[in-house]
């Protein structure tokens, strides 16, 4: 995902899990959006919990949460958070972020990139 977001002109910062994403957010007030999967093998929270934590602490940050296995329940995601079911086209994610008019993204990864 990071590669196609970068190719679309977004500045992409990657985090290995939700905990690292929160650490990056605290250090980088210029971040304007997060793209995250629901399921992350590491860390203390999943993507739904990350969305709620970010919404509480940084309500102006746009968010896209994705999953191929889980769909959010009625109260699992804040109203402003976009949810995309997998599989999705890269252009769909790009369009959602562009509609938010947000140039930067933090993306918690499911695994370290080589």
TrEMBL record:
Gene3D superfamilies: 3.40.50.2300. The modification 4-aspartylphosphate is found at residue 37. The keyword Signal does not apply. Pfam families: Response_reg. Residues 1-101 form the Response regulatory domain. Keywords: DNA-binding, Phosphoprotein, Transcription, Transcription regulation. GO terms for molecular function: DNA binding. One of its GO terms (biological process) is phosphorelay signal transduction system. This is Response regulator with CheY-like receiver, AAA-type ATPase, and DNA-binding domains. It comes from Microvirga lotononidis. The lineage of its organism: Bacteria, Pseudomonadati, Pseudomonadota, Alphaproteobacteria, Hyphomicrobiales.
């Amino acid at each position: 995902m990071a590669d196609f977001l970068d190719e679309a002109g977004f500045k992409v910062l990657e985090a290995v899990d939700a905990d690292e994403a929160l650490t990056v957010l605290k250090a980088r007030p210029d971040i304007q959006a997060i793209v995250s999967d629901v399921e992350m093998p590491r860390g203390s929270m999943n993507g739904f919990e990350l969305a709620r934590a970010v919404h509480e602490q940084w309500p102006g940050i746009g968010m896209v949460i994705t999953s191929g296995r889980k769909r959010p329940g009625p109260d699992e995601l804040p109203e402003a958070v976009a949810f995309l079911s997998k599989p999705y086209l890269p252009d769909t994610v790009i369009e959602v972020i562009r509609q938010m008019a947000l140039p930067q993204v933090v993306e918690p990864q499911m695994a370290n990139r080589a």
